[in-house]
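Ticket #4471: structure output looks truncated?

Reporter: J.K.
Steps to reproduce: submitted the chain below (98 residues) through the standard prediction queue, then opened the result file.
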Amino acid sequence: MRAAAEARGAQDNLSRGNLGALEALRAAVPAAHDRLRFVQADLGHKPSVQSVFSTSSPSIDLVIHFAAVAFVGESVAQPLRYYHNVTGTHTHTRTHLT
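Returned output as attached by the reporter:
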């Protein structure tokens, strides 16, 4: 388990997310403000993902992916959007492992 003082990070393209949620977290836990790094970038954009991993200090040793898009009707109407979410996950995972 990590020590409470270690840094945390989040990456999101904000296509469904809300930057207000991050600000609410920072307001609710002022001590975490300087330890929480946010990068607005798409998981499918390999240069952005590589930049996050290469500039992180300390190095990243854990990744949790919550970037699901889960609307059935929309997935039928816009299948490529959902395909992009899956391939973005693949890009993120491969970048982290290499």
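Triage note (M.O.): checked the attachment and the full token line is present. Strands lie at 8-12, 36-40.
Status: closed, working as intended.
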